[in-house]
Amino acid sequence: MKSLVRWGLTLGLVGSTLLGSVVAVDFPVLALSEQQVKEKLDSVPVYLITNDQGLPLSRTIPSQNGQPGASVTGVYMSRQEALAFIKELQNAKNKDPKLEAMAKQLQVTAVPLGVIYQQLQQSKNQQNRLLFAFKPVDKEVKGALTLLNAGGQKVNQFKSVPVFAVRFAPDQGYVPIQLGANNQQMIPLFLSKQDALGLLNQVKPKFPKADIQVIDVDGVIKTLEDKNDSWLNQVVLVPSPESREYIRTLPKNNAAKQNNAPSKRR
């Protein structure tokens, strides 16, 4: 498992967004390696439901049309929603005694999104490749649909994890910010509409046409993998406020204990 300390490196971003300066930017073109993509995704914690042995809970998809069955692991973007699912299982009535005992042992385990990406990459050419089903935050999905429909797109469903990016205008580039003592220029992609609105409100007085573009995490990953656009090396994914608060509660030495992500499932 990637060091949880790495997640903490992103924590100051939104606060710095409110204080940092919006700048024009001209970056050199740099292609991103698979490792670089993983490192960017590592800034975002995701949540697995695991048993007392640390093995992720999964469900079986039956075989269809000659295709073998598969086991799918749920990946939550919200720790609170994952905890709510466990509570629902534990409170369910008329359960099988074995299922009841199992439910009492379930817990939520946080891992970096980059670890999920890495495992998908490593198993993509295998017959029994790993499968993950992402559960986006309900509030963020509704926020994404609201923005899309307000922009003239007739969208009723959003099947992926929404990501929010602030642009100078619909036909212009993304808004970068300066971070840290060295005023490092970064382009934030937010997992929270609320955070994107914070940056939008900052730039609106100077750039009246500024807006929020709704993309999805699959599109972000594909762009990072396939494109050589100059701004990609400066992209940083910003976890939701809930996840940032959770990261703040982690002990400083937690990284030393987190070395390997769960790779087996039941």
Summarize the structure in short.
With 266 residues, the chain is α/β, with parallel strands linked by helices. It has helices spanning 4-8, 13-19, 34-41, 79-91, 97-104, 113-123, 138-150, 193-203, 217-226, 241-248, and strands at 45-50, 58-61, 70-76, 107-112, 131-135, 162-167, 177-179, 184-190, 211-216, 235-238.
Search tags:
266 residues; alpha/beta; three-stranded mixed beta sheet; 10 helices; 10 strands; 20% strand; disordered N terminus; Tic22 family protein
Explained architecture:
- This is Tic22 family protein.
- It comes from Sphaerospermopsis torques-reginae ITEP-024.
- The structure is a single chain.
- With 266 residues, this protein is α/β, with parallel strands linked by helices.
- 35% of the residues lie in helices and 20% in strands.
- The strands form four sheets. The protein has a three-stranded mixed sheet with strand order 2-3-5. Strands 7-8-10 form a three-stranded mixed sheet.
- α3 (34-41) packs antiparallel against α6.
